[in-house]
Amino acid sequence: MTTNQTSWVSRRRFLTSGIIVTTGVCLMPRRLFAAEESPVITIRNAAATAKITVTKLRGNVSVLQGSGGNIAVLTGQNGKLLVDAGIPGTRARITEALAGLSNDPVRHLINTHWHFDHTDGNEWLHSIGAEITAHENTRKHLSTTTRVEDWNFTFPPAPAGALPTKVFDNEQTVKLNSATLTLKYYAPAHTDSDISVYFTDADIIHVADTFWNGHYPFIDYSTGGSIDGMIHATEANVSRVNDKTIVIPGHGPIGDKAQLIEFRDMLTAVREKIATLKKQGKSRDEVVAAKPTANYDAKWGGFVINGDFFTRLVYAGV
Ligand SMILES: [Zn+2]
Fold first, then answer.
1. C-alpha span between 133 and 312 (Å, rounded)
2. Does position 289 have pLDDT exceeding 60, yes or no?
3. Distance from the CA of 280 to the center of ligand 1, in angstroms?
4. Residue among 89, 101, 112 nearest 237 (CA)
């Protein structure tokens, strides 16, 4: 298979699964199957009809799902705090979901990393009064033209209103709404801008896209991600949580420590298989043809990243 064919296949899976996840029905407009359309455009357009589900987790923390990455919400008298901004096509439904949680205005937004499905909503949330906190590399990538080869997409610099207003480099503590949040930078993992957000009192952690619960993860080598970085981040996640911690993944259902461990074990096993084949001198296409993820695909390959795509992502980093 040529590179174009394989990337088209993975792109088509991206579109198909994105629509199923966001609408629950198969009303796919024909144009969404266009081979040349980037998944970035497709996901942005699909947000216009995406359903938003709201789940109360613990204390005054909830999660909104259905608009790009999972959005955590902390309510209280100091104003709502959101972790990640979703996609503006869902603005009306996000607004409705937020109003259903409390009357507090939105005052704070934290970006877990720079990717569009976590930051596209920055501008409108900032326009209604949210200050934006992120790792300094999130502001760096949003400030400049950034190409993501595996999405076939070049992001122009974000508008000024979408840029983080506060950045940090390693760790930051935020106190509001009677809660203490710890923001912590990972070493480069999914990108070079990933942070976790830990709600210490509620014992809830948003781990950004270092964890896709039940799905092979995307790894963005174009902005510093790597399979080994993903494994290190997952080890860090496992060591930080206990059996009662609620784990919010970047994508997929709300999880726990046992699911983080399963994810870690899958990443490690697939990495070893692919590294062994690569050391034997096999080319990327030969390794893909050897189906090193075959035993894992039924469980992990049903969302955006299928087994072949994940094999290519891992191969690039071993
Ligand atoms: Zn991401």
1. 33
2. yes
3. 32
4. 112
CA of 34 to the centre of ligand 1 (A): 23
DSSP tally for the chain: helices H, then strands E: 11, 14
Across the chain, where does the E strand assignment appear?
Answer: 53-58, 61-65, 71-74, 80-83, 106-110, 131-135, 146-148, 153-155, 166-168, 171-176, 179-185, 195-199, 204-206, 246-248
219 alpha carbon – ligand 1 mean position (Å): 8
Using the mean position of ligand 1's atoms as its centre, give its distance from the Cα of residue 221 in Å.
Answer: 11
- Confidence band for 36, pLDDT divided at 50, 70 and 90: low
Q: What is the pLDDT of residues 109-130, one digit of tens each?
A: 999 999 999 999 999 999 999 9
Give pairs for 141-146: CB < 8 Å, separation 24+: 141/114, 141/191, 141/193, 141/223, 142/114, 146/114, 146/222, 146/223
Report if pTM > 0.85: yes
With cut-offs at 50, 70 and 90, classify the pLDDT of residue 45: confident
Q: Distance from the CA of 119 to the center of ligand 1, in angstroms? A: 10
Alpha carbon of 104 to ligand 1 centroid (Å): 28
If you average pLDDT over every residue of the chain, what do you get?
90
Q: How many angstroms separate the CA atoms of 241 and 239, rounded?
A: 6
CA 115 to centroid of ligand 1, rounded, Å: 5
- How close is the Cα of 112 to the center of ligand 1, in Å? 9
User: What's the gap in Å between 189 CA and the centre of ligand 1?
Assistant: 10
Residue 224's pLDDT is 97
Q: What spacing in Å lies between the alpha carbon of 218 and ligand 1's midpoint? A: 7
Number of Cβ within 10 Å of residue 308's Cβ equals 21
Residues with a beta carbon under 5 angstroms from ion ligand 1: 115, 209
